[in-house]
């Protein structure tokens, strides 16, 4: 049974608070957009840092806006009896609030540092941090903490509705075939789930949100969460390819050789080997959706429209070049958003709303192109190693300061976050560690770099670089 957001409405605290909108779900959307955590996403990396690059590339704010646009369109396609478009739009706008400086690289660094250096069993996860922001940290709702969002929107933010280890029981990390994201980190079988949407400190908020959807199983997304998740996949698959075509990183020759190499001989070495590895991985993990003919058709479509289409002419900044990018994006967005299906009893690695078979394979191939020809570049890797050093050093400096006998001169927000974590019952050391993580994750890329310069004595601009404190 699927419980709709319209039936769930509001659960728990949060009936009060005037807003410009009449619908409680539109009030939620307005509160999210007005949050400073939302505004900061303009300075947070999507793939390449927007700070000082001179490149017109997507950041976490523009990504969130595009996900919201796609999510609303998909939600309207699913239908009002199952899905409220206002709920999915609000959840899409909120889904990346917790992303730290430097994007996914920052997320990995903060998680490892939190677990290994700060003694936090939950570590760090961007989705869980988003949920912590809207329920606990942000102060722009009418209540004392959080945004006081409806149960429907809080549940829709829960892309991975479990904690790292404890909830629910049985936990997905121990399943022979876990839900997507529910398995352990690569090489760390005892790490709990790699992806999760709630820390132990916010379990009560998770339970109260999910209680409004009694027909939703313990590992299952709500309909609106599944729509938001699908929209995130669609936006990610398209706009990052746009970015790196514009800046000349995504080259036709390499992509063409890989796709043609696989198409000719299903290569296991040389051009086509990476694509063949993807095919085998999909067939092994996602047999519920994988189909040989659909995979081949997806490779052919991406080759025709991306390699022989968009990438055939180098981007030169002309109006014709911009038109080609816009048409590619619009065509693919319409195709993918139009290819959604509702499943009232979905497989464990899917959700109640998902891409149809053809579009599911196409997204997998588009993501592969981005992974293989952008994310695996050596020049990007060297840049990211520097960013990782910034974050590790910043966390270490803040943790050391918080442990010093210098409480009167601590950054006020860092002090407040430590007190908040203590009020949630965390031991002193863990409360300090969580405060450092919360504080660091709330910075933009530029603020993180400038603050490290201040704390290491490399900056002489006291009233500018130190302003973030």
Structure characteristics:
469 residues; mainly alpha; two-stranded antiparallel sheet
Shape: globular
Helix content: 55-70%
The main β sheet shows up as: 2 strands, antiparallel
Q: Element order, helices and strands?
A: HHHHHHHHHHHHHHEEHHHHHH
Structural class comes to mainly alpha
Number of β-strand runs: 2
Give the end-to-end Cα distance, rounded to a whole number of Å: 49 Å
Provide the β-strand percentage band.
Answer: under 5%
Largest sheet strand order: 1-2
Task: Supply the number of helical segments.
Answer: 20
**What's the rounded overall pLDDT mean?**
89
Rg calc = 22 Å
Low-confidence stretches: 9-18
Written account of the structure:
This protein is mainly alpha-helical and 469 residues long. Helices cover 56% and strands 1% of the residues. It contains 20 helices and 2 strands. A two-stranded antiparallel ribbon has the order 1-2. Helix 6 crosses helix 16 (378-403) and helix 13 packs across helix 15 (357-375). It is globular. The N and C termini lie far apart (49 Å). Mean pLDDT is 89; it is low at 9-18.
């Amino acid at each position: 049974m699927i419980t709709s957001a319209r039936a769930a409405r509001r659960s728990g605290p949060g009936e009060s608070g005037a807003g410009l909108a009449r619908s409680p779900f539109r009030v939620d959307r307005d509160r999210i957009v007005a949050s400073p955590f939302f505004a900061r996403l303009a300075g947070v990396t999507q793939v390449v840092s927007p700070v000082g690059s001179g490149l017109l590339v997507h950041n976490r704010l523009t990504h969130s806006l595009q996900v919201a646009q796609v999510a609303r369109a998909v939600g309207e396609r699913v239908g009002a009896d199952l899905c409220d478009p206002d709920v999915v739009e609000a959840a899409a706008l909120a889904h990346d609030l917790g992303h730290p400086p430097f994007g996914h690289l920052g997320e990995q660094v903060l998680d490892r540092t939190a677990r290994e250096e700060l003694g936090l069993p939950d570590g760090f996860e961007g989705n869980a941090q988003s949920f912590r922001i809207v329920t606990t940290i942000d102060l722009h709702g009418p209540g004392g903490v959080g945004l006081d969002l409806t149960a429907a929107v809080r549940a829709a933010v829960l892309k991975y509705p479990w904690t790292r280890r404890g909830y629910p029981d049985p936990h997905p990390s121990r399943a022979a075939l876990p839900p997507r994201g529910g398995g352990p980190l690569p090489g760390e079988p005892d790490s709990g789930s790699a992806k999760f949407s709630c820390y132990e400190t916010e379990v009560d908020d998770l339970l109260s949100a999910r209680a409004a959807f009694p027909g939703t199983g313990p590992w299952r997304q709500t309909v609106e969460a599944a729509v938001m998740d699908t929209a995130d996949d669609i936006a990610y698959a398209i706009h990052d390819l746009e970015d790196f075509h514009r800046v000349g990183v995504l080259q036709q020759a390499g992509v063409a050789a890989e796709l043609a190499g696989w198409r000719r001989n299903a290569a296991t070495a040389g051009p086509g080997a990476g694509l063949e590895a993807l095919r085998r991985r999909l067939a092994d993990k996602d047999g519920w959706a994988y189909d040989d003919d659909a995979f081949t058709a997806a490779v052919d479509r991406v080759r025709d429209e991306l390699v022989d289409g968009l990438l055939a002419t180098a981007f030169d900044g002309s109006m014709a070049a911009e038109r080609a990018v816009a048409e590619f994006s619009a065509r693919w967005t319409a195709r993918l958003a139009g290819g959604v299906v509702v499943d009232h009893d979905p497989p464990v690695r899917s959700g109640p709303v998902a891409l149809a078979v053809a579009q599911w394979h196409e997204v997998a191939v588009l993501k592969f192109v981005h992974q293989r020809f952008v994310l695996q570049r050596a020049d990007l890797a060297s840049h990211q190693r520097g960013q990782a050093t910034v974050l590790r050093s910043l966390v270490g400096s803040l943790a050391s300061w918080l442990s010093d006998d210098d409480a009167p001169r601590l950054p006020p927000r860092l002090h407040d976050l430590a007190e908040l974590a203590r009020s949630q019952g965390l031991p002193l050391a863990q409360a300090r560690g969580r405060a450092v993580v919360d504080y660091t994750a709330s910075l933009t890329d530029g603020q993180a770099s400038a603050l490290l310069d201040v704390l290491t004595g490399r900056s002489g601009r006291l009233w500018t670089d130190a302003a973030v404190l």
